[in-house]
Write a structure and sequence with these properties.
The chain is mostly helical and about 130 residues long. It is built from five helices and no strands.
Amino acid sequence: MNKNPKVSKQFILGIIFYAIAIIIQLIIMKIIELPQLGKIVIALIPMVPAVWGMMGWLKSQRELDELQQKIAVEAIGFSWGIIAIITFSYGFLETFADFPQISMFWVWPIMAASFILGQFWANRRYN
């Protein structure tokens, strides 16, 4: 188990700061007319706390015991496979069957959901 609550705290704070950054980002974009470079900078601001939170999550993964690490790796592999199948399938449908383009924002929720499913599947195998 994760014996370092500070690491978990970093991940949780990263998520909270990410959400706050998105709110600030939306407010700024509504009230200030920015040049293209300014829009790019404001668009990417939430990525700073996201990267910091991700680093906390990665540190917490190093604290897991070997079985938990194995389960996590299998869940990640499962989610990568699901994402590859879905994104390539839809990409072919966009290219050859005139399906509408969809936002990249859909990739992460699908990856997170498939990671959770993969973790559930791997946990059942080992427990």
